[in-house]
Design goal:
about 650 residues, alpha+beta, 7-stranded mixed β-barrel, two-stranded antiparallel ribbon, 21 helices
Length: about 650
């Protein structure tokens, strides 16, 4: 066969199979476009020079997007090849050699992958500019312009190599399928998986155990650090359980319907028997839809919650009750405290021409040892401890009063105390070493942005802090031994009557001063926007990937069902069943198959909400209502989108059937 003839066959096939290939090209093009945007942002000089953490975040996202792009393209090409088994068999029967069929397929997929590559690169550049501006807006960076987002040659090369690799993998798989099978076998594969599946009780038991294990971990895990590890374990268990139960338990449930008297009603009989008959080939796809739906809901709700919490953190974070903080790296004791305090005040005074421009300044003493809680007692946390550590942020009373404009007094045996963990502060007294303190509870403003399980302690004076530092020791990595916790001294201040930008530039000397650490509220807020805005950006992109994959699976599932039901539809008409009954029967099957994954996904998300909320504490989210609001909103929006997708794909199904 000449190349010209093979090309004619290929283009004729592309036209004939457009109902399958257009969604493949569009969905794969969207995924490649997102992958292109990620690679372009990673290599963008503006992003690299203006944002410290963003390139690392986008790199992680690019890996995830790249993996899912490869998975979905391979899934789709496998579906396309399977639906064309009959066509390949007919080619062989008509006299075409296997090498000729391979040549036709190679041309077809070359055209398809070329279109995908063009869509991905052109769309990646166009929408990449929009994404670049949107990302800068999320991070409150108003200096970024379209000219700062040039066309990325690196992204083009990476995407081209990815598409080329997927093209050769597809050709290799199709060649193997053609060369290793006979026309009769190809015809048989067109209807593989249609036999009634067996009831697999062992898989059901394993799936139920995995599901209970995953749910149990999600519901019982307490603490941010523990949640970080357990979340992935619970996720793997629930994903495995979802696939196992869709494969096995769904069959058992359907077969149980046969024992009910209502089963022998025409609509029920046809609907249930049809579902049992085809469930074997559909279970994996339905489980995939459920898993991807969970990914969409959790990813978008979590990232939206994180981003919405940024301004709240910036406004209420106790560490930045003033615009600037200068901290001495020297540990404080009763002998050097006055000297360190004087040095800090002098350095701040030298940043302005008149000391009257320094406003609301005060000296703060602080330390934050890791502790183990045993009843109402705090002890030194050691590496062999069986429980997770708490961080105990400790401040002196004078600085606490000035931070929050309070006028609280304490006795020698009293402390102020709060926690960012609900229900953790259930003690009237606190024992540290040989001393017992009466606890006076305060609100958790002081820990409003703490991202680990923490307590905050306000003590009367430096001598009390020194006692606590001597009891609650800290592990020194360099010396590899336990030593007294370090007390740090800081000065916090505002400025007045001076241009903030000019003043920030004049602080460069303090930033480079060895032995001191300078922080500013503006830079901290910028870092929050950069980190959390980057997470939201990645969450949206990954959500789009999951949504695209969900739409793709649902669409091809409807197409597959349509082709499988077309002959059955005609048979049912010939035996005298009414069109209305046939339509209701088909509709009941489609609804069961496509809404079951959604219900499972929502159940998974509801159970996971507790452990996800624990993880969100790492980003300063300390109220479940913050997460719950976006969680409910995302579920509602996703349900509407899912319903629209179902309705649109159902039309294609009914067109094929009729």
């Amino acid at each position: 066969m000449t190349f010209s003839m093979a090309r004619k066959f290929a283009f004729q096939n592309l036209k004939a199979n457009r109902i399958l290939e257009i969604p493949f090209v569009l969905s794969s093009g969207i995924m490649l476009m997102l992958f292109n945007i990620m690679i372009s942002l990673i290599n963008n000089k503006y992003v690299q020079t203006r944002h410290k953490t963003l390139p690392e975040l986008i790199t992680m996202g690019a890996v995830v997007v790249g993996i899912f792009t490869i998975i979905f393209v391979m899934y789709t090409t496998n579906f396309l090849l399977k639906k064309r088994n009959k066509e390949f068999a007919l080619y062989a029967i008509l006299g075409l050699e296997k090498k000729h069929i391979r040549k036709i397929i190679s041309i077809e997929f070359f055209v398809l992958f070329s279109i995908i590559a063009i869509l991905g690169m052109v769309g990646g550049y166009i929408f990449g500019q929009i994404s670049f501006l949107g990302l800068n807006r999320l991070m409150h960076d108003v200096t970024g312009r379209i000219m700062d987002y040039p066309f990325s040659i690196t992204a083009m090369i990476v995407c081209s190599i990815t598409m080329l690799g997927l093209y050769f993998i597809t050709i290799a798989r199709s060649s193997y399928r053609i060369y290793m099978t006979t026309p009769v076998q190809l015809l048989g594969k067109q209807h593989s998986g249609e036999g009634e599946p067996k009831s697999r009780f062992v898989l059901t038991i394993i799936g139920l155990v995995a599901l209970c294990g995953g749910y149990g971990i999600a519901l019982t895990t307490e603490g941010t650090l523990s949640s970080l590890v357990n979340f992935f374990i619970a996720s793997l268990l629930v994903i495995a359980a979802t696939y196992l139960l869709f494969i096995s338990f769904s069959i058992i449930i359907l077969k149980m319907q046969r024992r009910r008297k209502s089963y022998f009603k025409p609509e029920k009989f046809l609907g249930v028997s049809g579902l049992i008959y085809r469930m074997k080939s559909n279970a994996v796809s339905l489980a995939s839809i459920a898993v991807m739906s969970v990914g969409i809901i959790i990813t978008l709700s979590a990232t939206a919650t994180i981003y919405s919490n940024i301004q709240k953190n910036g406004d209420s974070f106790i560490a930045f009750s003033r615009d600037y903080i200068l901290t001495s790296d020297t540990a404080v004791d009763e002998n050097n405290f006055k000297d360190i305090q004087k040095n800090l005040e002098n350095r701040v005074g030298q940043t302005v021409t008149g000391k009257a421009k320094i406003k609301n300044s005060f000296i703060e003493l602080s330390m934050n040892p890791a502790v183990a809680k045993n009843g109402n007692s705090f002890e030194t946390y050691t590496r062999d401890a069986k429980t997770s550590p708490y961080f105990m942020f400790t401040y002196d009373l004078d600085s606490y009063n000035k931070k929050l404009n309070k006028n609280i007094s304490l006795k020698d045996d009293e402390v102020l105390m709060t926690s960012n963990r609900k229900g953790a502060l259930n003690m009237s007294s606190l024992k540290i070493g040989d001393r017992t303190f009466k606890v006076r509870e305060i609100d958790n403003k002081i820990l409003s942005s703490a991202n680990v399980d923490s307590y905050a302690l306000v003590v009367k004076d430096l001598s009390t802090m020194q006692y606590i530092a001597s009891v609650l020791k800290t592990y020194n990595i360099q010396n590899k031994n336990m030593e007294n916790s370090s007390i740090k001294c800081s000065i916090e201040w505002n400025v007045s009557g001076i241009d903030k930008n000019s003043y920030d530039n004049s602080l460069s000397k303090l930033k480079n001063d060895n032995g001191y650490t300078l922080e500013s509220r503006a830079e901290a807020l910028k870092g929050l926007y950069e980190l959390n805005g980057g997470f939201l950006f990645l969450g949206v992109l990954i959500g789009i990937i999951f949504l695209t994959g969900t739409i793709l699976v649902i669409y091809y599932k409807q197409i597959s069902e349509g082709y499988e039901d077309r002959e059955k539809y005609q048979i049912m008409k010939k035996i005298g069943l009414s069109d209305n009954l046939i339509k209701r029967t088909g509709a009941s099957q489609i609804v069961w198959m496509l809404y079951a994954p959604l219900m499972v996904a929502i159940a998974h998300c509801i159970v996971a909400s507790k452990i996800v909320y624990q993880l969100l504490k790492m980003f300063g989210v300390n109220q479940f209502s913050q997460y719950g609001t976006y969680f409910g909103l995302v579920i509602g929006v996703f349900f509407v989108i899912y319903f629209v997708i179902f309705k649109m794909t159902s039309r294609t199904y009914y067109k094929i059937v009729k």
